[in-house]
Amino acid sequence: NDINLELWKAADSGDKSAVVSALSAGGDPSWQNPSDGDRTALMRAAIGNHADITRIIIEAGADIEKRNVNSDTAMHYAAWMGSNEALSVLINHKADVNSLGKWGWTPLMLAVRGGNLATTKALVDAGASVDIADNDGDTALHVAAYYNKAEIAR
């Protein structure tokens, strides 16, 4: 378990050599940190926009669709944070761009909510649906209107 936490911390801080070392020592690339809402090293790499680390962890066998306590995936985090380089790695490795979180939010909705125009465009270009509605019946366009993101709504 210590090596898994080392891997998680290295991914979080963007320490590529420590990530490689922890994986070589048997770190589980899909391990979920219970003290961080079950986030994985892949999620932490996506949050920090550490694209190389995102790729290394995926290629080490990480479950790219692993979900935390709120049913969010690494794709949700990359979209919310506007982590475009990590997002690109996730897209290239076929992460689900239409994955639904606990409240039915997609990565696209999170990118819109965060005001991340480039991220929104990348998701739409990768096939993210603008028509999916969340648990309240709202689509990404509703999210754009509600949060006054007119530039993204266009």
TrEMBL record:
ANK repeats lie at residues 37-69, 70-102, 103-135, 136-154. The keyword Transcription does not apply. Keywords: ANK repeat, Repeat. PROSITE patterns: ANK_REP_REGION, ANK_REPEAT. The keyword Repeat applies. This is Ankyrin repeat domain-containing protein. It comes from Meganyctiphanes norvegica. The lineage of its organism: Eukaryota, Metazoa, Ecdysozoa, Arthropoda, Crustacea.
